């Protein structure tokens, strides 16, 4: 076994917050400022323990069931999106609703509704039980089939011959490509999304880890267990042959991970705040790190406008198309 001290930290670029997460957190904070506590949020606004605890301390109450929200309350839908049934129930209960669904998830919902009207059925590539998948599947009453892996593709039995593919936004780019190839082998005429559904932030963070992993001995991903895109970053590093660990905070770091591994790569999922990355760096300095370097990478400029009623003039002028950074 080599030296047990960390020598160098290499930071992935880009890492951490994406435009959809930034916007979702800002929606809750602005709703709290405008209406006062409590503000109810359906599901964790984004999948990060620190963010959720911070908003709880400021007066947000997180619920899974709309039955737990009192009449007349202000309710925010999380960045992952909601099914039609949830939207209808919230309207029926008369809540003051703000929708923090990421515009890139909404884009998938809109495309789905448009094609469904044209008579399409859908294969959805995604992870069962993830709230985004529940929200997207729940845009339609029927005719949408979830596939989680290549084997699932053989089990899809569409009733008609018009079939389109949609995907969760935070998948492994490589796994999704393999599954899509299997879908196309089974259904050669399947319609693909015009622009892939996997979002720019997922793509950029995975690309950055692909560059980072071969240059280091171990990769640390800051992100919560429930965060799909953070889990995918850990997998991307491991598939490049570099051991990788996910941490919710600096307290999770274990000295044993760095025994004989002096070069540490560090990244963060799209829902993990930079303050946690800085705390991890501080702990890695205690473990011996003397050099902290940031890799060159794509500069993301995507920003999304806030919903009506919570935005301001400067935000309303920000273009919403993410194409320049995809
Ligand atoms: Fe939107 Fe992508 Fe961020 Fe999810 S990870 S909130 S889809 S930008």
Summarize the structure.
This protein has 326 residues and is an alpha/beta fold.
How would you describe the overall organization of this protein?
The chain is α/β, with parallel strands linked by helices. It is 36% helix and 16% strand. The strands form three sheets. A five-stranded parallel β-sheet has the order 10-9-11-1-12, with helices on both faces. Strands 3-2-4-5 form a four-stranded parallel β-sheet. Helix 9 links the parallel strand 9 and strand 10. The radius of gyration is 21 Å and the shape is globular. The chain starts with 7 loop residues before the first strand and ends in a 10-residue tail after the last helix. It binds iron/sulfur cluster (SF4). Iron/sulfur cluster binds next to helix 1, helix 4 and helix 8.
Keywords:
326 residues; alpha/beta; Cobalt-precorrin-4 Transmethylase, domain 1; Rossmann fold; 3 domains; four-stranded parallel sheet; disordered C terminus; binds iron/sulfur cluster
Q: Can you write the helix and strand succession as a string?
A: EHEHEEHEHEHEHEHHEHEEHEH
Beginning-to-end CA distance, first to last residue: 42 Å
Strand proportion, as a percent range, falls in 15-25%
| Unreliable stretches covering 5 or more consecutive residues | 313-326
User: CATH homologous superfamily of the largest domain?
Assistant: 4-hydroxy-3-methylbut-2-enyl diphosphate reductase, catalytic domain
How confident overall, as mean pLDDT?
94
- Using the CA coordinates, give the radius of gyration: 21 Å
Integer count of domains: 3
Structure summary, number of beta strands: 12
Residues in helix, %: 25-40%
């Amino acid at each position: 076994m080599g030296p047990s001290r960390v020598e160098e930290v290499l930071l992935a670029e880009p890492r951490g917050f994406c435009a959809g997460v930034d916007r979702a957190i800002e929606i809750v904070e602005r709703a709290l400022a405008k209406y006062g506590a409590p503000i109810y949020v359906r599901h964790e606004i984004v999948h990060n323990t620190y963010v959720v605890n911070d908003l709880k301390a400021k007066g947000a109450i997180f619920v899974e069931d709309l039955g737990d929200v009192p009449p007349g309350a202000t309710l925010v839908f999380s960045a992952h999106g909601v099914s039609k049934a949830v939207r209808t129930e919230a309207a029926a209960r008369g809540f003051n609703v703000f929708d923090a669904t990421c515009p890139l998830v909404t884009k998938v919902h809109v495309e789905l509704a448009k094609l469904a009207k044209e008579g399409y059925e859908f294969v959805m590539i995604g992870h069962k039980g993830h709230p985004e998948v529940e929200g997207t599947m729940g845009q339609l009453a029927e005719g949408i089939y979830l596939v989680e892996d290549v084997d699932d593709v053989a089990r899809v039995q569409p009733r008609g011959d018009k079939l389109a593919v949609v995907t969760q936004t935070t998948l492994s780019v490589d796994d999704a490509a393999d599954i899509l190839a299997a879908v196309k082998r089974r259904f050669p005429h399947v319609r693909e999304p015009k622009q892939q559904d996997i979002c720019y932030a997922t793509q950029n963070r995975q690309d950055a880890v692909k560059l980072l992993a071969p240059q280091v001995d171990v990769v640390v991903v800051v992100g919560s267990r429930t965060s799909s895109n953070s889990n995918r970053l850990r997998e991307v590093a491991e598939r490049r042959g570099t051991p990788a660990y996910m941490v919710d905070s600096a307290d999770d770091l274990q000295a044993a991970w760095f025994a004989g591994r002096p070069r540490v790569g560090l990244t963060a999922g799209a829902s993990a705040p930079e303050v946690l990355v800085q705390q991890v760096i501080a702990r890695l300095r205690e473990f011996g790190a003397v050099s902290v370097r940031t890799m060159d990478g794509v500069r993301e400029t995507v920003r999304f406008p806030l919903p009506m009623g919570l935005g301001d003039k400067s935000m309303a002028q920000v273009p919403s198309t993410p194409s320049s950074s995809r």
